[in-house]
Design brief:
single chain; 120 residues; alpha/beta; Hypothetical Protein Aq_1857, Chain: A
Length: 120
């Protein structure tokens, strides 16, 4: 599989980057599951009011074509089709007065819906 390089630095662009806060929260959630071989699988699926929606879940199975990114003890798995729509994205975990949850900053999004769960 060929790598996509950044024009500015000529380094490979990661499929997705996790902030330290996201790594910590994903690590906590995996530990709570009690299975040490779990990884966070991130995917993009058709659906939602803008065309695509994000999917995240814990998975222990890795396909040959999957892309794996390591963040300390946390592994992120992305299938090749989703990788094209996620490339360069950042996953963060936010905890504030208005609620807590994961947020994806995706530079590939051209429009998104009001609910924030769907994009194109």
């Amino acid at each position: 599989m060929s790598q996509i390089l950044s024009i500015k630095s000529n380094k490979p662009i990661k499929t997705v980057v996790l902030t330290n806060t996201a790594v910590s929260k994903v690590g906590e959630l995996i530990a709570a599951e009690g299975e040490s071989d779990l990884a966070l699988r991130m995917a993009v699926r058709p659906g939602g009011c803008s065309g695509f929606s994000y999917e995240m879940f814990f998975d222990s199975e890795v396909e040959d074509a999957d892309i794996i990114e390591d963040f300390g003890d946390v592994r992120v798995i992305v299938d090749p089709q989703s990788a094209e729509r996620l490339r360069g994205s950042t996953l963060d975990y936010r905890d504030g007065l208005m609620g807590a949850g994961f947020a994806i900053d995706n530079p590939n999004v051209t429009k998104s819906c009001g609910c924030g769960n769907s994009f194109s």
